[in-house]
Write a structure and sequence with these properties.
Chain A: It comes from Neovison vison (American mink). The complex is a heterodimer of chains A (74) and B (345). Chain A is 65% helix and 0% strand. Chain A has helices spanning 6-16, 18-23, 26-39, 52-68. In chain A, helix 3 (26-39) runs antiparallel to helix 4 (52-68). The two termini of chain A are 22 Å apart. Chain B starts with a helix and ends with a helix. Chain B has 345 residues and is α/β, with parallel strands linked by helices. Chain B is built from eleven helices and seven strands. Chain B is globular and about 75 Å long. The chains are: A mainly alpha (74), B alpha/beta (345). Chain A binds chain B through residues 15-16, 18-19, 22-23, 28-30, 32-34, 36-37, 39-40, 46-51, 55, 58-59, 62, 74, and chain B through 203-204, 206-210, 249-250, 252-253, 256, 276-277, 279-281, 283-289.
């Protein structure tokens, strides 16, 4: 850890804002969750980037919410 | 400048010839987990105890440490219930991995005369909760209890044995410091604890990164618990299980609470970094797969309570074979049998 913990403090405060940004993207999060959950059904296989499209939508919504908030950006 | 260069070159040359320093460090880390061909079954090193001490110290020093105490308070009060259930008074008791003393604050001076609190984190011992029983705080590791044989009437342990590397040895130590006819009452996290978090992280990591690494530490299974207690020498075992479900607004709040409790992962094989994308994906999966009606997400804490006694001649033993006087077939007439017994007395 650095001497005064400035970097750590900054990163933690950004992380603490995650839940409210996520709450602003409820629909995209639900869509991503449903996609992943569908792959856990019998006969489905979860591979890398199976739900990449839904995740991109979630991520862009999340980044937009983060930009809008006073904290400013991911 | 020349001297500095010389020193640097020396350091690079000191490991075994041909082995780069980076690989040496990786191999040391890997050997922390026992290899399948190890000679001694006790050479288990799953958790970094030093890091666990640092995490507990950090958690105890937080400005609002009390708001993360809810789980340990609840389990502490249930263990105190079990102590009251035993119709005996204990003059000397030990709390292994006490944290801030969650069990002792529910007990009274008649039941327990004096309490020894043992923990590996000194900050937790410094902030011990107010209680009426006289206590002595000792800084010690759960696997290396610094007490003589046959010292304590009662040993309790609440939610700290799941970070112990060598659990058989820790239980043997507890058995050692107990007096004959002494009792050990413990609570440990069980296999289903935090399964929602484990599954969400697993699925999200697989989808985002193509593989996954363990983020939730391994817990003991209930069958193993019985065997472990028996192997340590305890008699008359009782193991029962309880599930506490706590609702959180989301996955991030759950992880923050776990960190505030001092329950962060400290296994050697933990991955040092959790990507933001993976965290986001896991929170979305958690919310979708496990959410309640009101939008909160549950987290399950499965707790195993175990009671074991140290052998003493006065304890009831199984009767001799063939000494039965009534048969199970007469169970329907048990009222008559009991009244007959009373009359004959």
């Amino acid at each position: 850890m650095s001497g005064n913990g400035a970097v750590w403090g900054r990163v933690r405060s950004r992380l603490r804002a995650f839940p409210e940004h996520l709450a602003a993207c409820g629909a995209e999060a639900a869509a991503y969750g449903r996609c992943v959950q569908a792959s856990t059904a019998p006969g489905g296989r979860l591979t890398k980037d199976l739900c990449a499209r839904e995740f991109e939508a979630l991520r862009s919504c999340f980044a937009a919410a983060a930009k809008k908030s006073p904290r400013g950006g991911l | 400048m020349l001297r500095l260069g010389g020193l640097w070159v020396l350091r690079m040359r000191s490991p075994a010839a041909g082995v780069p320093v980076k690989n040496l460090c990786l191999r040391e880390l890997a050997s922390g987990v026992s290899s399948p061909g190890s000679t001694s079954p006790r050479a288990l090193n799953i958790f970094d105890r030093d890091l666990k001490r640092k995490q507990k110290n950090w958690a105890a020093r937080q400005p609002e440490a009390m708001k993360f105490d809810y789980l340990k308070e609840e389990v502490g009060s249930r263990i105190a219930d079990r102590v009251y259930d035993i119709a005996r008074n204990f003059s000397l008791a030990l709390d292994v991995g006490c944290g801030r003393g969650y069990i002792a604050q529910h007990l009274n001076k008649e039941t327990v005369g004096k309490f020894f609190q043992v923990d590996i984190a000194e900050n937790a011992l410094k902030n011990v909760l107010e209680m009426e029983i006289p206590t002595v705080s000792i800084l010690a590791d759960e696997e290396f209890l610094p007490f003589r044989e046959n010292t304590f009437d009662l040993v309790v342990s609440s939610l700290s044995l799941h970070w112990v590397n060598d659990l058989p040895r820790a239980l043997e130590q507890i058995h050692y410091v107990l007096k004959p006819d002494g009792v050990f009452i413990g609570a440990m996290f069980g296999g289903d604890t935090l399964y929602e978090l484990r599954c969400s992280l697993q699925l999200a990591e697989t989808e985002r990164e193509g593989g996954f690494s363990p983020h939730v530490s391994p817990f003991t299974a209930v069958n193993d618990l019985g065997h472990l207690l028996g192997r340590a020498g305890f008699n008359t075992l009782t193991v029962d299980t309880d599930e506490i479900q706590v609702n959180y607004p989301g996955m991030f709040e759950l992880m923050e609470d776990l960190q505030g409790m001092g329950e962060s992962n400290c296994a050697w094989n933990r991955k040092g970094l959790l990507h933001r994308d993976t965290m986001l994906a896991a929170a979305a999966v958690y919310g979708e797969m496990y959410k309640n009606e009101d939008g909160s997400v549950p987290a399950t804490y499965q707790v195993y309570y175990m009671i074991g006694w140290k052998y003493h001649d006065s304890q009831a033993r199984p009767a001799e074979r063939g000494s039965a006087t009534v048969s199970f077939g007469e169970l329907g007439k048990i009222n008559n049998l009991m009244s007959q017994g009373k009359k004959s007395q």
